Amino acid sequence: MGISSSRKSLAVAFSALAVLAACGGGRDEERPIESYSAEEIYAQAEFQLEDDPRKGDKAAETFAEVERLYPYSEWAKRSLIMQAYAYHQARDYESSRAAAQRYIDFYPADEDAAYAQYLLALSYYDQIDLVGRDQGVTYQALQSLRTVIERYPDSEYAQSAILKFDLAFNHLAAKEMEIGRYYLKRGHYAAAANRFRTVVEDFKTTTMTPEALYRLIECYLSLGLNTDAQAAGAILGYNFQSTEWYQEAFDLLQGKGLKPELIGTGWLQSIYRQMIRGAWL
């Protein structure tokens, strides 16, 4: 996204002309933006963006002028994707998303469509840590990142999208764990168990799964559901025996005269078939 020396020169010239016009005879004698070429306006916007990326909204407004004045030009197309980028730099995620979506709608087959979709996903992803307990934006990030991965698998953005997808997925699991621990600490064992169950069932590929199984054992023992606690321990021991959570679970069960083993029927037996035997049906 850097500025070439020729475009930078155009941008400097653009600024200098504006200043000279203002000094020469006041605002009425300034050269109107309509008199500049698309390339000159585009270069000015690039210069503004490089000068202070945090004020990318100003650059985005200048890029928008290219669209307004030269709507069917190649520069207009470039300016639209740059609007999305500039707004993102300014953390105006809603405007960035809108510009990126317009680019995808107008130029779905263009080589920069993958980047537009990636920017759209980032407009959600970069807000994940800003939304507190509302995880709607995380789900939207996951959906948008999946689109990048599935629609543009050979693009340079696919690998980054995969990494961010995994991190966002783990974030959802971590939020479920946070709520589950809250209930567990206050003795609401059934409510806590439901949260930990969600992690084991829906987020089993995340790093939260070993702790979720251990917390289930805590909940089930407190509820007197010993066979369920033993089943959770069996799954934990088979898949995550090298983790700290298994040793603590083993000690916890042993203290009750129990051991990790699969007994009876229930949802944990289904998880056992899925995670250990690979039987998904």
Q: Which architecture name of the largest domain does CATH use?
A: Alpha Horseshoe
Shape: elongated
Strand content: under 5%
Would you tell me which CATH topology of the largest domain applies?
Serine Threonine Protein Phosphatase 5, Tetratricopeptide repeat
Q: What series of H and E elements makes up the topology?
A: HHHHHHHHHHHHH
CA-based gyration radius: 28 Å
Distance between the ends: 49 Å
Structure classification = mainly alpha
Q: What's the count of strands?
A: 0
Percent in helix: over 70%
Count of spatially separate domains: 3
List the uncertain runs.
1-9, 16-28
Mean pLDDT: 86
- CATH uppermost class of the largest domain: Mainly Alpha
Number of distinct helices: 13
Summarize the biggest pleated sheet.
none
Describe this structure in words.
This protein is elongated. The chain folds into three domains: 1-110, Serine Threonine Protein Phosphatase 5, Tetratricopeptide repeat; 117-172, no CATH class; 187-281, no CATH class. The chain is an all-alpha fold and 281 residues long. It is built from 13 helices and no strands. The longest helix is centred in the middle third of the chain and has 28 residues, at 158-185. Helices cover 72% and strands 0% of the residues.
Please supply descriptive tags for the structure shown above.
3 domains, disordered N terminus, Serine Threonine Protein Phosphatase 5, Tetratricopeptide repeat, mainly alpha, single chain, 281 residues
